[in-house]
């Protein structure tokens, strides 16, 4: 896709109603979830959580700061 075509696409997408943008966003996320790399990373994170390496909300807030 050329830079001009990509810019045109972005401008057209920006004019979509909010509900359609949400649908598009969900579609793009689903596309990413189909990739083997995404599945592998998700499995790794779930394994870490199962091994007890997880952070609760209070700890996360401390780590992120004020």
Helix content: over 70%
What is the helix/strand order? HHHH
Q: How large is the share of residues in beta strands?
A: under 5%
Structural class: mainly alpha
The separation of the N and C termini measures 42 Å
Mean pLDDT rating: 94
Per the principal axes of the C-alpha atoms, what is the gross shape? elongated
Give me the Rg, rounded: 18 Å
Poorly predicted runs of 5 or more residues: none
Q: Helical segment tally?
A: 4
Total domain count: 1
Characterize the main sheet. Answer: none
β-strand number: 0
Describe it.
- The structure is a single chain.
- With 66 residues, this protein is an all-alpha fold.
- The protein has one domain (18-64).
- Helices cover 77% and strands 0% of the residues.
- The chain has 4 helices and no strands.
- It has helices at residues 3-14, 18-33, 36-50, 57-64.
Characteristics of this structure?
single chain; 66 residues; mainly alpha; 4 helices; 77% helix; 0% strand
How would the blueprint of this fold be written?
Blueprint: H1 3-14, H2 18-33, H3 36-50, H4 57-64
Q: Outline of this structure?
A:
It is built from four helices and no strands.
